[in-house]
Amino acid sequence: MNERLYLFITLVVLLVTALTSVWIYYHRRARKLYGQSWESILARVTPIDKRNLRTVAFDLLGEADRLDRPDGPCELEASEIVELIGGFEGLRAIQKNCDALIDLACYCQRMYPEALVVAEALRLNAREIQWHLDRLDAAARNGSSRAAFGEYAQRIAAIYYLMTRRLVSLYEVAEMPGVQEVQISLA
Amino acid sequence: MHLSHLDSLFWLLGLVGHLALLFVLLFRRRARRFPLFTAFVFCSVLSTVVLYLIYPSGSRRAYPYAYFYTYWGFVALNLVLQLGVVYEVASCVFRPLGGWAVDVRRRLIGLILLSVCVAIALAWLSSPRAYEWREALVMRGSLFSAALFAELFVGMTAHSVTAGLPWKTHAARIIQGLGIYSIFCIVVEAANSYFGLANGTTASMTMTRARMLLYLLCLAYWIMTLWRPEPKPEHPPDGIQSDLELLRQETVASLQTLRGKRRL
Description:
heterodimer, A: 187 residues, 2 domains, 0% strand, flat, B: 264 residues, mainly alpha
């Protein structure tokens, strides 16, 4: 067999294996996702100190998340943010919680397709958090994580805080079952 | 060459299956929502009948390529309709409220570009065992379309699950059936390219029959799932749409404002 044929057969095998694996993975994920109740999704949310989260978020946002505060000066030092957020572990918990928050929005969307618009906006927020986390990881690899932590972690905290507020509002607006539990857990 | 009893049975079952699906689409009024999928099924019925009628005369000396051109003409039409079906089901799944989600739209464009590139690479790398350029072209084209559709349908499934979009809708069922079938088609077309398309070749015939069997199963799946009604959403509270739109605007605006904020 010539080299080209080897390449062709390899590509066919790789493509078919990859497509079949993706197909099976997402089918299983869909079954799992659509079999979940709001209680089981909410149970996936790792508890995060709400007071600390609010303190870090408000330092950037201004009081009551009105977003009308002029830029800076932020009072919290980077070391304080590290302590309040719980370092990288706290940020990983936030990242994990984002998935649960989106799944909760999708749960609402299953009952009311109109909720799609909010779920989409929350997905964009979660992507922004992921982006900041990637930047932070890169900074950690370069040895400049301390300085970068204050900048990125505070943004992550602020976005996550706003995401929790919007999700609670979504459950209130849609009069979803479990709205009180979502409020207690997230707000 | 004459068709074996098994091939005749597959042909007949395919026709009956398509007619049954067409009946379901029309009787259950799914055709209004999926006009291109209905056209795709109708085209399959038409091609089965026409090809069956011209098959005996296909080998006559006067029209040696009559069957060849008719067959591949229908394949080309089928290809165009399948592209239409991709757009149709993508519209149903990804923009249930009339607008494409920003992140979904970007991912879909990325998916299309990647799918086209991989399909081109696969078709280019193949060295079809063909007797003439027309056959080689057809084999490369078949491989390209099989790879493209498999990637698009699998990618759409992945994106729809990631976005938490409804999974048990009729559009999702169409994607599921075509996705499985398209993945198998890559194997069949790759095997055809490797072994050649010569009539009566054992490998070619076996793969073709396996594909026909899988397609019949897909037809049965569509008939069953499209006959059943879709899960109905709950009746939303009054005024929810405006509230949700307000909430969306707030969520988007807060993210944009945050991007511009500086930590001084």
